[in-house]
Design a protein that fits this description.
alpha/beta; 8 helices
Length: 189
């Protein structure tokens, strides 16, 4: 397997970190409404797809999506396609919902859809474990899996030189505190 554990440990220093993470004040974060429409490349978090599809994305987010180059993560693809197995086929709205999601997925250019490699998985695992430990969230409630998916997206953004766009303020703020070199733009619906 092509994963340099020693390099990842030197870079992230997970065992050297012991201070509990707390969410920073809003004033310390980058917000979509403060961003110029034209700018760097974005990597979209799953929340962006859901908010756009449900018609609740703020105007500032819609503007960023219109003007900036957007990349997509296979992690988000998995989170979005989960509904194809999850939704009840007998429910009246299922067919329409799945059609909208299908159209959205088909609009993603293949050259802008990125799957995590072994390095991303290894580093994301460390980052997710570190985030979980330093936030002291309760076990058995899905936080660890959620942190892993978020850490994969976050690390992919680092590899692409992209900025994460998300409304997941708490989790991505924690990740950004641990690796401040990765830029994150936040928004609220």
């Amino acid at each position: 397997m092509a994963f340099d554990l020693r390099n990842a440990l030197r870079s992230l220093k997970p065992q050297a970190r012991t201070a509990e993470l707390e969410r920073r004040a809003d004033s310390a974060l980058s917000w979509a409404g403060d961003e110029p429409p034209v700018g760097g490349v974005l990597l979209l978090d799953t929340s962006v797809y859901l908010d756009v599809l449900q018609g609740r994305s703020p105007e500032a987010v819609d503007e960023l999506l219109s003007y900036r180059l957007c990349h997509h993560s296979a992690v988000c693809l998995a989170e979005v396609t989960h509904v194809f197995g999850r939704l009840d086929p007998a429910h009246a709205t299922t067919k329409a919902v799945l059609k909208v999601i299908e159209d959205t997925i088909e609009d993603i250019p293949a050259h802008r859809l990125h799957a995590p490699d072994a390095t991303a998985w290894g580093r994301a695992g460390m980052l997710a474990g570190l985030s979980f430990r330093l936030t002291q969230l309760p076990t058995g409630q899905g936080h660890e899996r959620r942190f892993l998916n978020d850490a994969l997206i976050f690390h992919q953004a680092a590899l692409l030189g992209a900025t994460v766009l998300t409304d997941n303020i708490r989790d991505f703020d924690y990740l950004n505190q641990l690796v401040p070199s990765v830029r994150v733009i936040f928004y609220r619906c």
